[in-house]
Every structure is written in C-alpha cells, then in structure tokens.
Design a protein that fits this description.
The protein is mainly alpha-helical. The protein has 5 helices and no strands. Helix 1 runs antiparallel to helix 3 and helix 3 packs antiparallel against helix 4.
C-alpha cells in the first residue's frame, strides 16, 4: 500500500476528473468550451504528478480548480448543467490539490522526497 499513498490516489482522482471534464461534450452533451481545455490541463498535471512529483504541479492544480469554480460566472455560462459540472469538479480538484500541498508542508514528509 506504500506505493499507492493518499497523495497518489489524489492524483488518480484528479486524472479521472480532468479526463471526464475534457470528454464532457461527449459524455454529458455539454457544449465544448474553456472547461474542456482546463480538464485536459488538469489531467496532464495529474499524469506529471504521478510520473515525478513536484509541488508546483499541485499549486497549478489548485489554481485550475479555483479557475473552474469561477469560470461559469466569468464567462457567463447559460447551461445550468455546465455550471454544476464546473463548480463541483473545480471544488474537488482544488480540495485535493490543497490537501496534497498540506501533506507536503505539514503531513507526510516522504511525499516531498518522492518516496
């Protein structure tokens, strides 16, 4: 279980969330937009974090999650399903990234060493 720590499980969850957001036009019938690009960005960051951890990846994931939360109001979304998906996905991504940043600075020291 050491290889699949809670930090890596957070990255896997972000990979799934980013992928589902990227494929949301086909999965949920939503119009393609900025959220698909942000979903791809989150998925790529998750793959990078799984390959070789660096704390900057988590900060970018946190920013991407917060961007997703505000995106519907910044771009004046009209589709309530798109608003819900962006806000919920953004909240989970931001929470997972904040948890990993907390783990690095206050929790499990093995994460910062790459073990």
């Amino acid at each position: 279980m050491d290889r699949w720590s809670s930090a890596k499980l957070c990255d896997v969850a972000n990979l799934l969330l980013g992928s589902s957001l990227f494929f949301s036009p086909w999965l949920f019938g939503l119009p393609a937009g900025v959220h698909t690009t942000v979903g791809l960005f989150i998925a790529v960051l998750a793959v990078a974090a799984l390959a070789a951890f660096a704390v900057w990846e988590e900060w970018f994931s946190l920013i991407a999650g917060l961007w997703l939360i505000g995106l519907p109001w910044l771009l004046d979304f009209e589709d309530s399903d798109a608003i819900t998906i962006c806000v919920v996905t953004g909240t989970v991504v931001a929470a997972l990234a904040a948890f990993k940043v907390w783990l690095v600075h206050h929790g499990d020291r093995r994460i910062s060493l790459g073990n």
